[in-house]
Structure formats: structure tokens, C-alpha cells
Amino acid sequence: MSNKLSDQVGSVGVVETKFFSFGDVDNGLTLESGVNFGPITIAYETYGEMNEDKSNCILICHALTGDAHVAGFTFPEEKKPGWWDNMVGPDKTFDTNKYFVICSNIIGGCKGSSGPASINPKTGYHYGMEFPIVTIKDMVDTQKVLIDHLGIDKLFAVVGGSFGGMQVLQWTVSYPTMVRLAISIATTARVAPQAIAFDAVGRHAIMNDPNWNEGDYYGKEKPNQGLRIARMIGHIQYLSDLSMQQKFARNLQNKEKPDYNWSSEFQVESYLDYQSDTFVKRFDANSYLYITKAVDYFDLSSQYGSVRKAFANTEATFLVISFSSDWLFPSSSAKEIVSALRRANKDVSYAEIQTDYGHDAFLLEVGTLSRLISNFMEYAL
Amino acid sequence: MSNKLSDQVGSVGVVETKFFSFGDVDNGLTLESGVNFGPITIAYETYGEMNEDKSNCILICHALTGDAHVAGFTFPEEKKPGWWDNMVGPDKTFDTNKYFVICSNIIGGCKGSSGPASINPKTGYHYGMEFPIVTIKDMVDTQKVLIDHLGIDKLFAVVGGSFGGMQVLQWTVSYPTMVRLAISIATTARVAPQAIAFDAVGRHAIMNDPNWNEGDYYGKEKPNQGLRIARMIGHIQYLSDLSMQQKFARNLQNKEKPDYNWSSEFQVESYLDYQSDTFVKRFDANSYLYITKAVDYFDLSSQYGSVRKAFANTEATFLVISFSSDWLFPSSSAKEIVSALRRANKDVSYAEIQTDYGHDAFLLEVGTLSRLISNFMEYAL
Question: Do both A229 and A372 map to the same domain?
């Protein structure tokens, strides 16, 4: 028997990221800002087989700094599978023996889809801040072009957590007849001023880094210190006060008493150092600017007058999930979505998962999420 | 009648900041870190008259970026009085017809007491990061030297909010027989990992500013961008989620629809810009490093084994106040103090003020605070 993780039972094995491009400089997609933008490339992965009537297609929308690589391995010896591998695969919640699962990287990101690090065909150089500002609606519109390209008329389900959950909601609003089941986890229909404020601080940190250089740093020193600070703020938002108490308390790093110096003496400080150091190796600072800007603009009510009106035409059946200790997108945000859907006479189930993990629970409470989602998908069939 | 604010009824009028110095390079104060440090200067103000038996003395401890100038005006035409002027003055809560009120600037700060911007007598140049790391205990120890200098054996009351509240608690522990009434508002007996994390991010922002230059920037360009970011984080902590919703919602600055650019489009963003711009004009970045470090180290239990044991010898009567929407030092922190005091058989009153203002309520809920504190002081007399 093979030792490779990619050969194990329950894994989708080795998968290849695919690329789909459309539009050109003169004829692209009209963005929410009014800008017409092209060409656009979308990186995506698929798992499982599409059935004959294309009725088994599930679109997964990734979170803020995620990517299209949801499950399996990009090469046979890889140690770490895709970001939601425990949910996607043969006999798993999103059972690839049964469903055709798709995930695409958002535009504005840096994981294969068009973003600020991509080459601008007009200049032959990286877009940098010449890349247009994009919104969640724009991200969903590009996913729609991909879904059309795959020949799918109606998605069996659209699923996502956090930033991915915003895309789920936007899908049901922008393409009300194309989504059968909508599963939104730990998200909001309109981003609150506190979250906008933290995002703005993160952007200031990046833009104040001398290496940022107005976004023109490709091939040079990167604005890593600024991006580190932005990411640290994110990690504080993703944990709950209680999970921080449980995980770190006031423990010092490898000692009993403080040394009274300027090093990261507390464990919580070295956690932030480690997480942000890892992050800057895999993520582009300009993309962080673009995607947090997209978050801040997200407000279903602004486009339609109210959240309820936004949902007026959707034909989807909804499952809304929140986590009790999530203070980034708290249960009150989920309840606003549920209430708007009920007032719009839509079919919605809601579950608040009791957990201390905070917003991070989206990737940690796998067992509970799996049961809820499996039951929902079975009931809805 | 005069138009000057300083001549108005209820004002202490024009006050002068005084300075008291002690110790020298070879014989200073032994800090919690073990370092012996001197000379030390303390800037302080007093209001009202000390009575014959010196039994009417109230020490006010200021918050993180506050100063000794609690009440009145530094010059006759000044427009803005001291930071707690609505609580301190003739016939006010801390009635200067009745009490002798003292407030001193913390060491490590930048408002007249010794701090990193002070001149190091060994070098003739600003200390910068040569200034020793100081703790809340050290700050209280220097206040004690001042109180001794003023000839006061026992303080009628020690009062403070937030960072000032930590000093109040430390006073009752370090000098258990010297405090008659202890009034601690919106504070904690040990700073939680979430607060440590945010403080660490703020320090990273300052230290990553290219102008910081290892703390050696006096007379040069200051690390204002880094300090701005640190302060923005603070302001988010001081407001509640709800007060941000009420104050800013998702409103844009002077427009109905976004322009999709990189300016501070949301009102909450321009609030942070304005507050932090104002702050960097009045505060030294190095002091911000030192005082947030002092906050992070604050843990009464670490010095004595538990919070209850820390309070074992205190003779003070306590009033503990928290604000329902404060998420920086939430009511649970206040309840930990109260519970420890009760288990130590101390006399303690506790009030949670219902308010949406968050941590900022300390300076906003003046009416309620005034009633609570006046009643407490009267009852205890």
C-alpha cells in the first residue's frame, strides 16, 4: 500500500488546477464600478464527475485568502491537502462519488485568477494598482461565466464560509434561478463598520510600508511588514476572546517570568508572528488590499433597498450557519439574513453552532458542519 | 462677567503643572525589572486645598495616553479644559471645595514625567529605547514617592479608569494601608491575551515605520504613520460594535455611492484618520511602546499567586464599575476583581452601567458615574 497521502481512501488524489480565460482589452466584463475589464483568467479545480443532466454540480466559494485548491494534492508527494479536504472527497460531506464539485479562485486574488500581480496586456508589466477595484458581485459574475462555460444551467448547491458566504448570498441575488441550495456559513449580508475599520487599518499598514511603493514592488522587496500587520489583525478577529484564553492565556514563550525586553514575550505574540510570517510567503499584499476593499463594499441592501428585497426573486433553499463565539460575523448577522429570507417567504434553515473557536470554527467544527450540511442536502433532494 | 472658560463657575480656573524630581543616576528607584533607575521627574497638578490632618486627598490616575492635567486650564484663554474637568472642580463630583485632588503623569509617558523622550543625563541626549521598561507597579511606586513628598500618610481615595484603574488596583496591593477608598472603572486585574495581541500589533506598526529608527527620531521625521495605525486599533477597541453602527453605520463620507477608489470612503475610516492624525500631534511614539508594554505585563495574580491573594492585606473599601458594552475590559473582568475582593473578605460595591458607548463610556457616562461615585464617597465617610 502506498504511503502517499494522495493515494489514501477518502482523498480525491492528485488534482490539476485548470485555467479559463475570456474577454479582451476592448471587450471584457463590466464591473460594478462601471469599468469594462478584460481579459480575465479564472483558475479553478473540479472533483468528481458531472452527471448527464448536469444536476449534481456544487460550487464552493473560498474564504478571504483561500484558493481554488479545495481538496486533494497538487503533486503526489505533497504533505498538505487542499483547504477543505476533510469536507470534499469520496464518501465525504461533498461526496465526489455523487457530486461534481467546482471551486474557482476569486478575481483580485493571487492564486491563479486575474489580480494585481497579473500581467497587464496593455503594458506587459504587472497591473499593480492599475488593476480595477472589484466587488463580490464582480467575483460572482466571473464565476457565472465559468459556470456557463462548463455548460451548467443550474447549480445543485453554492457553498461558502465567511467571504465565501458573501459570494453564496450574492449568487442567489445576482442569479436567482441558477442556485438550488445555498449554504452560507459565518457570514453577513452587509459588512459592519467595525470590520470595515479593521480592514482599513490593515490597508494603511500595507500602504505605509516603504516597500509597497504605490503597489509597484514586483521583482523587488515586498511590503511584508505591512502585510504581516494586516494579517495579525485578521488572526485576532478570527479567534474569540475565550479561545485566546484557552490557547494562550497570559503564558510567556518558553519562560516563567518576563525578561522585560522588546521581543515577543507572550505566546499570543509569537502565534501572531508565526502566522503572519507564514502568510506573507504565500500571499500578495496588493491582493490583500483588493479583497478587503471588496469585503467593505459588500452590502446586499444597498443594491436593492433592503436585504429582504435583494432576496425577492431567489429560487434557492437556504441553510444559514453561524458560530456562537464569532465576533467578526456574529450570529446577529446570520439572524439578519434569516429574518430577511423569512420575510421574503423563502425556505431557510438556520443553525447556530455553540463553540468557543470564534470565526475560525468554520474550518474547525468539521463534524458538526458535516452533519448539518449532509442532512440539509439530503432533505432538499 | 468674563467670557473666559477658566473664569466660569465650576472650573478650577488656571492651574500650573508642577514638577518633582528624585533620585539620581547612581541611586534611583528599583524597578520591577530589577533595574535601578534615576533621576525621575514627575509632572503633577493639584486642585483644592489640603486640610489640616491631610485626610482629604484624592489621587486620580490617568488613562493610557492621558496626562496630569485633569481639570481647569493651562492658560486663561485656553478653549479646552483638562480631560476630566466635568468631574473635578468646585461642587463637582470630586469637589475641590472639599477635597485636595492630585494627578500625576505616569513615568514612561510624554507629558512631563520621565519617559523615552526625556534627556538621559549619562548621554545628554534623549533616552529613546535606552529608557528602562516600566510596569504599572513602577508607575505606582513613583506616585508613592510623590505622595510621601506631599506629606500624605493616607489617601482618602484613589480613582481611575482603564489603565488608570489598573493603577488604582495596584495601589491597594502595593500600599495596602495607604488607600481608604479605591474606585476602579472599566479595568481588569490581568490583561487578557486579546488585548495583548492588539497592543503587540500596534507596537509592530510603530517599530516597522522607517522613521522609528530604533527609537532614535527626536529632532527628525517621526514615525507618525506607525503611531497612527497603533492608535486606530485603539479607537476601534474603545468603541462598541453597536456604537459604531449608531455613529457611522455604513455611511460614506459626503456621498451616496462609492467612487471605487482607495480614499477613506466610509465615515468610519475618516473618523479613524481624524482621530489618529490628532493623536500623533500630541503623543510620542516611543511612549506608546512603553505604556502598552506596561499594560501587557499587568497581572495582579502573577505577583501574589492569585488576584484574591494580591488583595489579602488591603484596607481599602472598593467601588468597581464596568460598562456593559465595553469589550476591551468587559464586565467579566470587573466581576473577577469583585469576586476576588469578596473572597478576600473586603468591602466592595459593584455597578455595571448599561450603555452602548463601549470602553469610551468612561469619559461619556458622566452623569451616571458622578452619581455612583458621589454616593460611594458619601456613604464611606
Answer: no
